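STRUCTURE:
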């Protein structure tokens, strides 16, 4: 008996190399598209020795515990409310199981990868290693190609499907770059210029009319067409609040697409529209080779900084300029970066010991163009940031329930509303758009809908169920009734006066709404911190409960798209304006 058992034990050891090689050959598809995503055409094979920065997300062994901890510290009725986790505590909760590390390391080593070159981030759950196309193709049993985008002509190296050895499916969440095609340039910015709205030269008129700031009745009618910080501060009832916790409290703006926030334009903006803030500055943090060209101001970047700071001044604002890739030339062998903006930014932020208490981001993709494994793993990173005590605001998108033909890309080409990601991630707070004053109504481009990837989180189950009951059969079959619904909240989104290259322009988009809402959240965080309390952190559990009366419910307007009338704003939560727009004074009393 003993000798047989020993023999059995020794057999696998003795022949471990051939066994392992066989094990790594047993492939199962991890993610596949039926076709290359819309807009991308195959240009030719990728050069074998083109170098990719391969990122591998390991399964986070205790991720359920991380989510449980996130909800405990974000639920106002829980005894742990506000007791946010440190970087170390989060890293421990998201660390992969040692078996996952060992298995993945042995797979990498078997492919001749020097484990010394593997960078390990996020408690060891994200690995980055440079790998040649030829090697990556063998590891993932795939063929990389060069794809070119129709409208930008940009080239990227991707594949339409990839596989992993069966045994690795239990250990790996996603490998990239593989099937996520969105690049820096083709990522849709959610802001656009409105040349038909005559820009304001200054704000003397608006300011003068605000005789009794803090009363909605005094919001001047000019705010119906042109928005300035004075309009927003009056409308959202924060005019008289003076921030105090400016040594601790910070507001972060995530910028991409080589968009640079301009210092001189911010000064001009303050001189015109917020004179008490003249001299106020912001810090630019360059992430992953992001630039800071002060001769090239970006519409999105300037909008974000001018309104985030225009509302939160003198709270310190930080603009994160996240680098993408140098343009990839298919014929050269120059290694390129891999265009994974959310990932690089998130991994950079999560590596800091202290993080800003409020973040705003105005970028997104159609959810269906983001592979589900990629979306899930990125969404999980937002959960980590929330557990650390940050409020994360995203604009909801500018296509209502969906732009264009709204056909699915699963090979069936059926018409479906098109949710946006990361707006659809349940761990962020998504901001829709409004317009006009007295009354404030939904703006027709306000992105809203239901995720097909993420199920409805419990914090919104009452609000969304109530909405669905009232909705009845309208739009039935065009959206997923069990999905995470958004937006959560809203703010103005049209006629924003933005200084770009010294000139004032009118700008619209939910890109206006997100920094505006973030500015208000930052003031609430200031108030809490100055009272010796924790920052708000992940907002959704508190705004759908204790905070719900602190919103101006928006009850008219709709968000048409996909050849339909979309959804209609009404009493209570709706997928056009969420819970409504913020009333800082009331929110201060409820959740401050
Ligand atoms: C790899 O993929 C090809 C199809 O591209 C398939 O024919 C082959 O069987 C796969 N190899 C393994 C080991 O699964
Ligand atoms: C609807 O959403 C759920 C998640 O809530 C998902 O599991 C399901 O696949 C989605 N249905 C479709 C048709 O996408
Ligand atoms: C504005 O905030 C104050 C508290 O600062 C509150 O009493 C008042 O009701 C709010 N005004 C409006 C119009 O909501």
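SEQUENCE:
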């Amino acid at each position: 008996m003993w000798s047989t058992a020993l023999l059995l034990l020794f057999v696998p050891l003795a022949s471990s190399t051939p066994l392992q090689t066989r094990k790594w050959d047993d492939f199962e598809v991890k993610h596949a598209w039926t076709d290359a995503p819309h807009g991308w055409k195959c240009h030719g094979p990728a050069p074998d020795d083109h170098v990719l920065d391969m990122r591998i997300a390991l399964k986070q062994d205790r991720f359920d515990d991380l989510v449980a901890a996130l909800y405990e510290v974000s639920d106002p009725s829980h005894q742990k409310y506000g007791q946010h986790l440190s970087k170390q505590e989060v890293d421990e909760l998201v660390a992969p199981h040692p078996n996952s590390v060992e298995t993945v390391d042995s797979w990498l080593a078997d492919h001749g990868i020097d484990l010394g070159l593997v960078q390990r981030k996020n408690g060891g759950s994200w690995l980055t290693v440079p790998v040649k196309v030829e090697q990556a193709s063998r590891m993932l049993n795939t063929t990389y190609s060069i794809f070119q985008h129709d409208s930008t002509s940009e080239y990227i190296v991707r594949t339409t499907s990839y596989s992993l050895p069966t045994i690795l499916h239990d250990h790996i969440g996603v490998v990239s770059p593989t099937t996520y095609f969105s690049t820096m340039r083709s990522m849709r910015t959610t802001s656009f210029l409105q040349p038909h709205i005559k820009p304001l030269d200054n704000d003397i008129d608006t300011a003068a009319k605000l005789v009794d700031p803090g009363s909605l009745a005094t919001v001047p009618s000019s705010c119906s067409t042109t928005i300035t910080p004075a309009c927003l501060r009056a409308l959202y009832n924060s005019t008289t609040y003076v921030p105090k916790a400016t040594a601790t409290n910070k507001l972060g703006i995530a910028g991409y697409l080589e968009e640079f926030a301009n210092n001189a334009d911010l000064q001009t903006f303050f001189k015109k529209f917020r004179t008490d803030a003249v001299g106020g500055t912001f810090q630019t943090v360059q992430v992953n080779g992001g630039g800071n060209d002060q001769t090239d101001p970006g519409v999105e970047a300037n909008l974000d900084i001018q309104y985030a700071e225009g509302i939160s001044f003198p709270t310190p604002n930080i603009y994160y300029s996240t680098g993408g890739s140098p343009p990839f030339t298919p014929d050269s062998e120059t290694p390129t970066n891999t265009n994974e903006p959310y990932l690089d930014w998130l991994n950079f932020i999560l590596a800091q010991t202290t993080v800003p208490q409020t973040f705003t981001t105005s970028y997104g993709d159609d959810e269906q163009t983001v592979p589900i494994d990629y979306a899930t793993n990125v969404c999980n990173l937002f959960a980590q940031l929330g557990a650390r005590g940050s409020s994360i605001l995203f604009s909801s998108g500018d296509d209502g329930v969906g732009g264009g033909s709204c056909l699915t890309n699963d090979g069936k080409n059926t018409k479906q509303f098109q949710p946006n990601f990361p707006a659809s991630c349940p761990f962020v707070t998504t901001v829709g758009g409004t317009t006009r004053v007295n009354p404030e109504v939904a703006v027709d481009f306000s992105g809203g809908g239901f995720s097909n990837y993420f199920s409805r989180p419990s914090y919104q189950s009452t609000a969304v169920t109530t909405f669905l009951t009232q909705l009845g059969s309208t739009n039935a079959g065009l959206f997923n009734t069990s999905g995470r619904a958004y937006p959560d909240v809203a703010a103005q989104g049209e006629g924003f006066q933005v200084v770009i290259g010294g000139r004032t322009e009118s700008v619209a988009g939910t890109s206006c709404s997100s920094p505006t809402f973030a500015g208000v959240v930052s003031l609430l965080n200031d108030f809490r911190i100055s009272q010796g309390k924790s920052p708000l952190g992940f907002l959704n559990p508190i705004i759908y409960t204790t905070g719900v009366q602190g919103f101006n419910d928006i009850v008219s307007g709709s968000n048409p798209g996909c050849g339909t009338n979309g959804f209609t704003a009404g009493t209570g939560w709706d997928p056009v304006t969420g819970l409504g727009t913020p009333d800082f004074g009331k929110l201060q009393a409820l959740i401050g």
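REMARK: Residues 365 and 421 are 5 Å apart (CA to CA).
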